[in-house]
Amino acid sequence: MENVRATRYVLPLREGGSMPGLMEADDDGMYVVKFRGAGQGLKVLVAEVVVGLLGRAIGVHVPELAVVDVDAAIAKYEADEEVQDLLDASLGTNLGLDFLPGSFGYDGSRTPDAATAQAIVWLDAFTANVDRTWQNPNLLWWHDSLVAIDHGAALYFHHSWPSEAPDPGRFARQRFDASTHVLAEVAGPLEKVAARHPEFAALLTPEVLESVVAAVPEEWLETTEFLPNTAAVRAAYVDALTARLAEPAAWLPGAA
Ligand SMILES: Nc1ncnc2c1ncn2[C@@H]1O[C@H](COP(=O)(O)OP(=O)(O)O)[C@@H](O)[C@H]1O
Ligand SMILES: [Mg+2]
What we know:
By secondary structure, the protein is of the alpha+beta class.
């Protein structure tokens, strides 16, 4: 991921709960920034990176990701008190997503082809992302492309890590409920999604899984009693994904 420095806070994007903000950076780019100090914690940023890069690896359109550095001067000149508190709590590295100007939220009035929908349903099933429903589609149309955003709710198994040893087998067997997925209908029968598992699994080689997890900035990885260093935390993500990839019948709806 590219590293940039934030130069200006432009405006808040208050749709969801996490208060992402639009920021300008020193590469003249505009980024939707997910803040480390936003309350949901660092694991949400980790999930955004891991799932975003997995998505890109299987051909799902996900905005380009970047690490956005926020320094104290930016926070100091922010007039809105709530935003100032958020920036003050977010000094250091945050997650940036390339801002897609003119994009608009998915509402079903225009639908993607079945193959695109199948890839997104498969990605969400694989990463246990429950946050792609009609209430919260987290899909944007941008030009002629359907773009997947907001993957912070995926990989929820990591929320249990502070209190117990990782159990990759348990995640591997957790069935995904695709019935409320916003693209369930467009993707067609779930057997068609399941039939594409070998194709997606072949793209997610051990090297790809390693490199996706390696892209997570070191300081976002939280060690625990059971995962005493960041290498162990990274390995736990790779183990969980590897185990799940190998056992689709247990979690992938429509798989025999
Ligand atoms: N890369 C992007 N380009 C343009 N708009 C975006 C982008 N990412 C998010 N948004 C807008 O910001 C809103 C909130 O982003 P999202 O990632 O869903 O965060 P959350 O739901 O956690 O607040 C989205 O619904 C969308 O309108
Ligand atoms: Mg959202």
